[in-house]
Amino acid sequence: MAQVDKVFYQLTISISKALNPAEFPLKVKHARAAIIGTFHSGGAHSFWAIALRQPLQENRITAWKFCHLLHKVLREGHPLSCQQSLRQRAMLTELGKLWGHLKDGYGSCIKQYTKLLVTKLEFHDRNPRFPGSMVLKKGELEQIGGNDINYYFHLAVEMFDYLDEIIALQDAVFKSLTTFHVSSMTSAGQCRVAPLIPCIQDSSPLYDFLVRIMFKLHSNLPAELLTGHRERFRTAFGQLSKFYDESRSLQYFMTLITVPQLPPNAPNFSSQVDFGEYQAPVVVIPEPEPDEFVDNLVDMTVQQQRPPEVKLEPPQPAIDFEKLIIERDELIRHLQLEVDRLGRSVKSCNVENRELQSRFEEQMATMHAELSQAQDEMELLKMQKDELELKAETAPTLEQKAIAEEERAKASEEKFLKLKTMYGQIRDEHVKLLRTHGEVSKQLATSTKMVSEVTKEKEDIRCKLEDLEHQQARVEENLQQSSNVAKQENEELQTKYKELQEKYEDMEANKSAEIAELRITCENLSKSIEEAKNAHDELQSTHESLSGEKDTLSADLEAQKANHNEEIANLHQEIEQLKGEVAKTSKETGKLQEDLERQIVSLQSDKNGLDEKLVDVQKMLEEREKSFEVLQCKYDEEVVKGNELKSELEGKISQVEEEREILKSEKENLCQEVEGLRSELQTKCEELQTTQTSLESELGEAKGEVEVLKSNLEEMKAKHELLVQNYDRLMVDRSDRECELQDLLHQQTELEEKHVATLETIGNLEAALRDAQIHGEVIVRSLLEACVKSSEGLATRAVSEDEFSGGAAGSAAYFGLLAEELVDMLTKLGLGHEQYVADNASVEPFARKVIMAGHLMATVQMQGAIVCSSTSDIEYGEQIAEELKDWYNKHHIALFESLLSRSDTTSTGNVLNATKTHLQAIAERVGALSKKLDPTENIGDMFEEELLGMDKAIEEAAKRIEEMLSESRASDSGVKLEVNEKILDACTSLMRAIRVLVQKSRLVQGEIVAVGKGGATAKEFYKRNHQWTEGLISAAKSVAQGANFLVVAANKAVSGDAKHQLDLVVAAQEIAASTTQLVVASRVKAPRGSSNLAALGAASKNVTQSTATVVATAKDCTKRLEDSQDLDLEKLTVHQAKRMEMELKVRVLELEQALESERLLLAAFRRKNYQSEVDGAKI
């Protein structure tokens, strides 16, 4: 077994053991083997090839362990594991959706884990510089982000998303433990909890990166812009702290991982002090014991034998006094900026506190309004209860009439309407007062904000380091005075509020007493009126009205019962509404709800009492019916007595009527008095409410001012502490700087003495330098003249070469001329070097020859490379180019180094001779290269011939398909005819689309030639772009061959059986691929925005659609032919069916074997064809 197969086999065994369906946690050795396998295979391809064959969709434990194993491979595996696993995102998503429908705990966990893995892959795809383990070295995060704040902003969002998925996974795992009562010390619990270890390892560096990025963002961006980031960080901080605390409490994690400890509070990103005190959380994984059968994969001997690097300390630079002073000024400026920034942060905190205060006040106002509304509704319920009690106490007897009941009902309705209108007016006024209070509070807040800003700006301007103590004393005095004044005003307001509250209570008591007296008088009047009416009705009752009274009384009782039931139902509805409203209020309305429930119970008891009284009334009616018979007997006696009493009653009736009129007048007077009293009470209530609202507003303003003063006092204290600290720090720095200054002064004296000595030496050196400079100027002037003249000669030479060569540049002849000229120049250079060595005065002609030789050598190398790259024999040209490169690299450095030496002239001559001989050999090979034939001479004619052949093949194919269609219609019928017509029609439409495509490609090619040829001919353009032309020729040949193959396949499909339909599919796909090659070759050089190119793209889409139609038609026709040839299996015997089954199996095996052999043959044919194409391209 080969080494690679053995490694793959071991990796397969390890992964299959790791993903076994037993509910146990993933073993470390199997995971380690999978991780090592990724390093052996150079990526995650082998891992995925094995993992995808596991039963991930059949077993939930296997899927869960797969997610855990994949997480560890992405973290600790080969660096290319994340990149190569990115293509499996769709599989992970589908796996999560599949198991997400399972409700046993593992389903939701697998779904969340796949989301986490997909998020991790996408994160590493967008940020490839982050490793899978999320561990970066110190300063590497700043190198990744640089100074791009936008990158840090988006990186923080991506890290928040990554951290949210980790938190969601751990939440699902812990929920499954609590829901199914699984312990972490059991195998089932450990299987669920084990994947949280890599989650902790990922979340710890993510938290560290987020903290550093947030501090960086807050130091460069305004705080309002980062509100969303701060909110997400707070929520993630709380959830992550909870996750770490729950993980730390699990006994299973005690020996496997050390869970990091987060601080109790989130860091303050606007303070650099918190950033200086910040410590990154550390996750510690104990090293596992090494297995006996695993050898060392990496040889560490080289690293152990490497000697330690010795770090050389740089020399200490000299101290600069001016730099120290500048640093001190910068420190002072930095402290001033820090003070200003702290002031701005305090302002923002004040604004936030005021906004919170206004919100709380609005909430309190709404709560008070709801409470007052509930109290008013409770008073209404109490009044209705009192009325019901009065009605129950003064229940009508059989003698009372409906008139009294109607009057009472009207009176109660009027009272209710009046109370309702009063309540609406009071509520509207209360709402208006609340709105005005809100507007006044907002105006007050804005004014106080402006005042505080102005004062703080003045204080910031005055803040200087020299006046800190004086300002602090003044501020403390002002604060003490303002606090005393505020306390006095607060005490005065409290006393005023208490006095007004006592007055309000007294008025409330008086009001309640007056209302009670009025109620008593009204009740007495109603009783007296009812007694008078009863007396009058009793006097007018006669024997004739007894029978009518029975009917009317029964109807009245039913009406009263219905009215009582309606009132009780209305009361129930109102009570339910009150319950709904009271339930929305806070704890303060709980007592009111208990009172409502008590009243509901009392009303229910009243209802029961009324029902009992109705029963009693019915009993009384039965008794009256019995007594009616007795009265019927006494009727005769009463008639006699009635005649006697009639005269007496008439006199009494007249007296009663007079008394009744008197009582009516008294009643009207009393009603007027009652209305006057009510109006007075309403005015007094309104006055009390206005005074109460004004007092509440004044009290709220006073409280707000007190709180503002308190907050200002605290801010000033904090400022004072900071300033004192800064002052102490500056004093310490000042003392240190003074000590350093003295040391620097001492060093300065020593340096001045050394400076005087060095000045003397410099004067001596300058005198010697002047003498050498005078002699050197003469030589430099001569060299300058030589360089100018040689440069002028090179410029004139370049112009003359350009005029001479024209289109000959890059040809072998031009290279030969340059090589001969370079050989002559090298011989002259040898002579000039000998003269220069003999006499220094001949430096000028020697410099000219050196410059000219260097220029010619560079020109020869460049022209030779052009000639070799433009030849058709690529291998031979590459050999010559490599040899030319070796000549240039080998000789030009050695030549110029030898020219610099003035002692040895023989070595210079040898170098010159070697350079010339090597150059002459290269020139001969380049001349031989030019003699070879160029196969691109007639490439334009070949291209035109191939296009004509392609057009001819397409026309002949279309004609042949039409002939086959006519022959099929003449010879076939039924299903066969229908199938042939569909196939040939689809082929005809495909040939039409190909014909249009060829026409459009002709137009695009003509446009390309017209744009690119310039002043040359079309054949020269094709020759110059011979590789592109060869591609077009190959595409044209493929289209012609595909058209012929399509005709043959269509003929077979029409004349043969269903198996030949596949030939038609292959032919259609082949010709579509050939046309695609033609379109791509045309699109390479087409100008952008060309209308012909757009038409060519549309024609290519039509060819693709026609090809798909041919394929679909062929498959459909094959199915129809097979359906028409199906056997009737019901008519076969058992023996025949068994025999046919055996024959079909044999046929299937033969076809499979034939398919395998054909595939091998196709692969060999493609290799052979590719090799022949490559050889043809080389020829």
From TrEMBL:
<dbReference type="GO" id="GO:0080025">
    <property type="term" value="F:phosphatidylinositol-3,5-bisphosphate binding"/>
</dbReference>
<dbReference type="GO" id="GO:0043325">
    <property type="term" value="F:phosphatidylinositol-3,4-bisphosphate binding"/>
</dbReference>
<dbReference type="InterPro" id="IPR035964">
    <property type="entry name" value="I/LWEQ_dom_sf"/>
</dbReference>
<keyword id="KW-0963">Cytoplasm</keyword>
<dbReference type="GO" id="GO:0030864">
    <property type="term" value="C:cortical actin cytoskeleton"/>
</dbReference>
<feature type="domain" description="I/LWEQ">
    <location>
        <begin position="931"/>
        <end position="1173"/>
    </location>
</feature>
<dbReference type="InterPro" id="IPR030224">
    <property type="entry name" value="Sla2_fam"/>
</dbReference>
<dbReference type="GO" id="GO:0030136">
    <property type="term" value="C:clathrin-coated vesicle"/>
</dbReference>
<dbReference type="InterPro" id="IPR002558">
    <property type="entry name" value="ILWEQ_dom"/>
</dbReference>
<dbReference type="GO" id="GO:0035615">
    <property type="term" value="F:clathrin adaptor activity"/>
</dbReference>
<dbReference type="GO" id="GO:0006897">
    <property type="term" value="P:endocytosis"/>
</dbReference>
<dbReference type="GO" id="GO:0007015">
    <property type="term" value="P:actin filament organization"/>
</dbReference>
<dbReference type="GO" id="GO:0051015">
    <property type="term" value="F:actin filament binding"/>
</dbReference>
<dbReference type="Pfam" id="PF07651">
    <property type="entry name" value="ANTH"/>
</dbReference>
<feature type="coiled-coil region">
    <location>
        <begin position="639"/>
        <end position="733"/>
    </location>
</feature>
<dbReference type="GO" id="GO:0032051">
    <property type="term" value="F:clathrin light chain binding"/>
</dbReference>
<keyword id="KW-0009">Actin-binding</keyword>
<dbReference type="InterPro" id="IPR011417">
    <property type="entry name" value="ANTH_dom"/>
</dbReference>
<dbReference type="Pfam" id="PF01608">
    <property type="entry name" value="I_LWEQ"/>
</dbReference>
<protein>
    <submittedName>
        <fullName>Putative actin-binding protein</fullName>
    </submittedName>
</protein>
<dbReference type="InterPro" id="IPR008942">
    <property type="entry name" value="ENTH_VHS"/>
</dbReference>
<feature type="coiled-coil region">
    <location>
        <begin position="357"/>
        <end position="391"/>
    </location>
</feature>
<comment type="similarity">
    <text>Belongs to the SLA2 family.</text>
</comment>
<keyword id="KW-0175">Coiled coil</keyword>
<dbReference type="InterPro" id="IPR013809">
    <property type="entry name" value="ENTH"/>
</dbReference>
<feature type="coiled-coil region">
    <location>
        <begin position="451"/>
        <end position="613"/>
    </location>
</feature>
<feature type="domain" description="ENTH">
    <location>
        <begin position="3"/>
        <end position="131"/>
    </location>
</feature>
<dbReference type="GO" id="GO:0048268">
    <property type="term" value="P:clathrin coat assembly"/>
</dbReference>
